[in-house]
Design goal:
Length: 72
């Protein structure tokens, strides 16, 4: 048995890692914990994500808005 993590948006499942290319039965388990995937990059470009850059991204939008518009 192989475990593959992913997200379900109510319509489709997006896998966070590669799945076997063979047709097979699966079991889908829904996890109530929202924060279980907080540290994982998601999306089509996730393979290019650099975890070390997440620290630099923290608050980047806020800093850009302060720089552009001032403190209010």
């Amino acid at each position: 048995m192989k475990e593959v993590a992913g997200y379900y948006d109510g319509n489709t499942v997006q896998l966070l890692e590669a799945a076997p290319k063979t047709k097979q039965k699966v079991i889908v388990t829904f996890i109530d914990e929202e924060d279980i995937f907080d540290d994982l990059p998601v999306g089509i470009l996730s393979e290019y994500a650099n975890p070390e850059k997440r620290i630099l991204e923290e608050g980047a939008f806020e800093r850009a808005m302060v720089e552009k518009h001032g403190n209010g």
